[in-house]
Batch of 3 targets.
Target 1
Amino acid sequence: MLKFLAPAIRELVSRAPLGELEEVRLRLQRPLMLKDRTGYFYLSPQAQPAPSSRAYLVTGDDLERTLQLITESSWYAWEQEILGGYLTLPGGHRVGIAGQAVYSGGSLKTIRSISSLNFRRAREVLGAADSVIKQVVPRPGERVLSTLIVSPPGCGKTTLLRDLTRQVAGAGFQVVVIDERSEIASSYQGVPQLDVGLQTDVLDGYTKELGVQHALRALAPQVVVTDEIGQQRDGWILAELARSGVKVMATCHGEGWEQVKRRSWLKDGLGVFELVVILSRRLGPGTVESVLRIG
């Protein structure tokens, strides 16, 4: 990830005393910010944690050089992906992009005057699903239980879902990932950068609706995986999968099952889910608080 930063920023970050790097935030004419497992902090021109008043200020040249590196000096070649608000780098790392939106005919045409970039390191945790896989697949060779992973933001939902996908595919099931935001497989130029299993097909950038249609028509999945369920239409999509005999693994935001089960999209899902996994950060991201059999 560091090689895509402007030289001045790269040199500072490489010298910084930090643990496992998670984020690098570049904001025009504002302090350079990093994040590791201890949290966020500003970085001084001497590559040391510092208050904002003494931190290195990101320049226009820093942003311009970084943009050249992440787009390979061709903004237009990446414009469609940029319209989604981010770029995916080799290794699955992501760069969030903020700037001025330009509209044409009511649709977003491009983003210009880039004012900030947020580099987020891709993290896969092989074995993250070890504690729940035997409940999702109770007996080898038998059916998968449709599973919903619930937690507030930042509790490891996608990390657990990714490893669960890998393990379910490894158990011999044909899996399709509808990766609407490119967060599960983190594909780069069509190739998954993170391990989602040998028997997994990835529909990268597809909407859930189009992805389900494509999967059912052409890929014959036994299990469909998708992230961030929460819209009304998602319930209808889940119901379509259930009617087709396909199992579902998905995530949604929520504090707990009692809160989530009152949402209208779930009512429209016709009781698709059979298992709910509740996560928290109580003992760190990915803490499994409970596994509930609901179907």
Target 2
Amino acid sequence: MKRLRAYLLIDPLIVLATLVFGTMSLAASAFDKSGRTQHALARVWARVLLKVSGVRVHVEGLEKLQPGASYVLVANHRSYMDTPVVLAHIPLQFRFFAKQGLFRIPLLGGHLRRAGHLPVVRGDPRASLKSVTAGARLIADRGVSVLLFPEGGRSPAEMREFKEGAAYLAIKAGVPAVPIGISGTRQVLPMGSALVQPRPVTLRIGDPIPTADLKPADRTELNATLQERVAELMAG
């Protein structure tokens, strides 16, 4: 019965909400170059998606984030539901790194760029460094935060080793890095499945780690600290 409900009700509602809010966001990107309208629409979309999915999110540590401040948000990645969970419950203006292939899609690519999102560049160190530098400039120019999943993709089992881009970005921008642990989303939407199931999710926000006195050479140590903190937050 739960499977039937997911296929006949939850999944179609998710697709419909995504199409409606995606179209509105695409239209907004034509006149709002700051990306704030698009972000506001994305937050509403995320809340609608979680509501129709029956997903209950328990949030801890939200008081550690100062309104209007800029951060590099660093989270684990186990499901496509991770992004809606963060969008719906972290009240900051933030942008994220998306797969480079999405930026090559007509209309969508232009929309992502106008909204301020950045491509993830893999296998090209020079292009990757350029993308991270653009992220640091985005934080400085627009006063926003940036969300990264430093595992480099969804983890099918245990958490993968973090890539150093998030740590380097935080140091380059001179803003605190915030570890975030997400648990329960894999049960909502497992890898390789299109079946969304109502399950409880926990979002834990750790203490921001200052980077103002750090140098790029410190990124390896910061990266290790971030991975350790995220693992602790996931475990509760």
Target 3
Amino acid sequence: MKLNRTQRLLVAIVAIVGISALFASGAAALAAAKANHHNGQQLLGQKIKTNGHHLIDKKGNFTASVEVKNGKVAGVHVNHSKKGAVAVKKYKTDKKMTGGSQGSYQNASFVLGQSQYLGTIYIGYAYIDDYGDEVIYWFPYDMIYDGDTGAVWYVPAQ
């Protein structure tokens, strides 16, 4: 079958529009996931003074607990009521991810009362909920038992 120039152009336009629609729907699906930042230090409170596992949050089927060892956070564990233990990813950042409006953050070095030269590193423990959203509990570095061992730099979605 031989196509003339107009028919080839029409086929090319349809293909480009179809591919563009495919990429647009994929980008929309990726953009739908969001991060929910929580102040782990505030949620843990005075329980930091007692060794053991302490419940800090419950969201739907998920229960988050902190393991405290010698006054420091030794780990965060998340359990799903039906599926059991959930994978937790460890992040680090130099931005304060909690406080202010939901999803806002600011450079830690500009927070009053902190050194501009040293800054503050925050360690976050994250899991993915049933809706594909990331839930992250942030703690100052000095509260973490093993520091940033195994943590990867957190890059917030734009």
